[in-house]
Amino acid sequence: MNKILIITHTADNESVTSVMQHIKALGGESIRFDVDRYPVGAQLTTQYSAGRWQLWLEDEHGSHSLDDISAVWYRRSYNIGKGLEKVLDKEFLSSSIGEVRRTLFGMLEGLPCFQLERYSVYRRLDSKEEQLRIAADCGLEIPATCITNSPEKLKAFMEATGKPIVAKMQSAFAIYREGREHVVFTSEINDSHLEQLQQLAYCPMTFQEKLPKALELRVTVVGRELFTFSIDSQQLPEAQTDWRKEGAALVEDWKPYTLPENISSGILKIMDLFGLNYGAIDLILTPEGKYYFLELNAAGEFFWLDKLCGYSISRHLAAVLLGQAERRE
C-alpha cells in the first residue's frame, strides 16, 4: 500500500481532508503531519545505523514510520514551532525555531520519494520575476512590469507606459496596526501614492500596467490536467483591481472555462520547466481577447473550486500522489 505524507497545519481547510479521503478510496494510506505541533506536540527522528536510514514521526495519533513513504504532499508549513514561546526563554527562541525549521525541511528534502513539491522548489518559485521571464519564454503574454525601489525608475516606467499602473508585493504582505492585520492587496497607483513615492526607496515593489478585464481566470494544474474557472471581477467595485478583496462574495460565481490550446500548451510548458505537478495560475482575459499571465502559486488554494467541479481536483491530486495519474517525476 502506498503511504503518503501530508505536510500541513491544524488550521488548514477542508482540502486536506478531501485529498485524504480520495487517497483512502484509491487504496492508499495518508499520514497527516501538522507542523504547528512540532516540536512541542510532535517528535521527528532520523537515524542511520547498520547501513539503513530510519525515520519516525510521533504525535498524538501514535508512532509513524516514514522511511517507507512513497510520496509527500507539501501543502502548508504554517506556524512551525508554535508554543515554544511558552516553554523557552526569549534568548533561546529564535535559534531554536531556526533549528526546528532546518531539521524539518532538511528531512523532507532528503526523502528519496516523489514530492509535490520539494521545499527547494517552493523557494525557487518565490521569484515572481523568474516566473514572468519563463512565462514569456513559453509564449504567454505578460503585462509591462517594473520591479524597483527607485522612485526615479518608477516615474520613467509610468511615463513610458502611459497607462494606469497597479502595485503589488512579491510575497504575502501585511501591515500591523494596533494589533490588527491589514493585508496588502494589489492596488492602483493614485495621486496620494505619488506623494509618498520617496518611501519606495526602503521597500521594493512590483508595478505593472493595469490591464482591462473581461474575465479573470484561475487555472489549477494537477499533473498534466488543467482545471480552469473564470470570474467576472468587474461586477463588484472593490473586486475590480484585486478579486480577493471580495473573495467571499464571489465564491459561488466562478464558472468552468475552456482555454485556447496555445494558452494551455504554454501553461504546461511552464510546469515542465519548473518540474511542477501542482500550480494555481492567475490569468487575465482582456476585452480584446488577449490572455495575460500574472503569476503561479505552487501552493495556491483550490478548495472553493474543488466544490464546483465535484471534487475532481482533490481526486486527481490523490491519484497523482499515488502514481495512478500522469506526473512529472
UniProtKB/TrEMBL annotation:
Keywords per UniProt: ATP-binding, Nucleotide-binding
GO biological process: SOS response
Every ATP-grasp domain range: 132-322
GO molecular function: ATP binding; metal ion binding; ribosomal S6-glutamic acid ligase activity
Keyword match Lyase: no
Domain of life per record: Bacteria
Residues spanning the signal sequence: none
GO CC field: cytoplasm
Protein name: MvdD family ATP-grasp ribosomal peptide maturase
Biological source species: Chitinophaga barathri
